[in-house]
Amino acid sequence: MRKNGKLLKSKAKFTRDELADLLEGLAGRIRDGQLTLGEGAGQVEMDLPRTFTVKMEVADTGKRVLERELELEIEWPVEADGTPLERPDSRSGFTVA
């Protein structure tokens, strides 16, 4: 049985165009239903469900320098082996414009 915990953690700087490319690549992988993050021994491969729970938060943070933070959290239930569990479709709330 798999324990809870971080499977991958990463931080990097991107230009606006690089970030857009990353998000477009992520969107394509989500549409395909399979996603691989990272490289080599540390990579995480995931099969994705048809529906997700998504949380979005925008906040101003920082003590010395004020920073704006956009956090997008995507969740879905999985079996112990990582196989996604499907939930009933539940659409709600926010848009991106």
Automatic annotation (TrEMBL):
Residues 5-84 form the Amphi-Trp domain. InterPro entries: Amphi-Trp_dom. NCBIfam families: amphi-Trp. Pfam families: Amphi-Trp. This is Amphi-Trp domain-containing protein.
